[in-house]
Structure formats: structure tokens, C-alpha cells
Amino acid sequence: MSMMTSQRGAGLIEALVAILVLSIGLLGMVGMQTASAKFEQTGWVRSALSSNISSLADRIRANASADATAYTFTRTYAAERASIEATPLPNSYLTPSKDCNAEACTSAELALYDLQVWRSDLNQQLPGAVGFVTPTGVKGVDLRFGVTVAWFNKDNLDGTALRQPVACTAATAGIAARNCCPSAVGTPAALAGVQCVNLEIIP
After folding, report:
1. Are 83 and 68 in contact (CB under 8 A)?
2. Which DSSP symbol is given to 126?
3. Which residues have C-beta within 8 Å of that of residue 136, sequence separation ≥ 6?
4. At CB < 8 A and 24+ separation, what contacts does 164-169 make?
5. Can you give the pLDDT at residue 39?
6. What is the model's pLDDT at position 90?
7. For residue 136, which phi and psi values (nearest 5 degrees)?
8. What distance in Å separates the CA atoms of residue 138 and residue 117, rounded to the nearest whole number?
9. 3-class SS at 130?
10. φ and ψ at 125, to 5 degrees?
């Protein structure tokens, strides 16, 4: 009788072990799905950034007669988002006053049109996105356009608080320089939850 009771107990333990193994397997599957979704989102963001900045580069190269400063656009993230989100929505902030695809434009007008279309596309492709352009160097010699794209990244959470981005400094270099937020865009506290990418366009 005691042997039969012992065997029944062994069967119960085996069932519990099987349930435990199954639970671990299910948790692993959920973890893989979560990681896959995160990697998919990261790939989508990179694709959107690559496409958008390539579009701006093509626009700049096509408008070769424009002054070096024609594509300059610098502003704080908060000020730009306030203008984009100003009520009533939709507002006309990112709507060009002159459609250079339908009308003849000067090089300066075309540059303004290009910037507005580019920023409008950014705003539609990424959440809370803004774009800034800063030219450096001399046209025809070493002209370059520094491009900063900043957007709201919901993954920038530190517990229940939004994580502040790293601010660019004179000593920032390498990969860190591509992912820091310039001081002109705002302070780290004002940019909580925001992610920045810095790239360079050579016309």
C-alpha cells in the first residue's frame, strides 16, 4: 500500500515538472516575440531615417545654385513641436506657401519649400519628429550640412520616468556623437524621452 502511494506521488511530481518545463518554454517564446518586435521597430526607424535624409540630400544637390545658408534651419525641439501641434489642427505650419512643383521658384524659395516638405515628411514618419540643418564650410570647397533628427522614443523609459538623452559636447566623438542631442535642440531635461541622430550630408 505504501509503495502504491509512493508511485502516485512520483506521478504527481512528474506532472508538476512537465508543467514547469512548459511554462519556461512559453516564457521563452514570449521573450523572443518581444525582442523581435523591438528589433523590427528599430529597423523601421532606421529605414525611415535613411530614406528621409537621403531625400533631403537629393533636394540639396538638385538645388545647386542655392546659397550655402539657404537650407539652414535651427530651432529648439520644444518650439518646433509647439508650432507643429498648434491648434486648431491640422494647421498650415508645415504647408509651403508656394508649391515649387507647380510654380517657378527661385533657388531660395526652392530651399524653403524643400525644408518644409522634408520636415512634414519627418513628422508623418516618426512620432514627435523634427529636423534641423546646419551648414558648415565654404560652398564649392568644403561645404557640408549637419542634419539632426529628433523624435519621441517610447522605449526611453527609466522605470516610470522618461530617460534624458545624452547632450553633445566638444569632446563627444565617434558613435556617441551620432546619437547625442545638440544643445541648440534643447537641454536634456527638456528633451526627456527624445532620441537624436546626427548625420552629415556632403553635396
Report:
1. no
2. S
3. 143, 144, 145, 146
4. 164/188, 164/189, 164/191, 164/192, 165/191, 165/194, 165/195, 165/196, 168/198
5. 46
6. 82
7. -135, 155
8. 25
9. strand
10. -90, -35
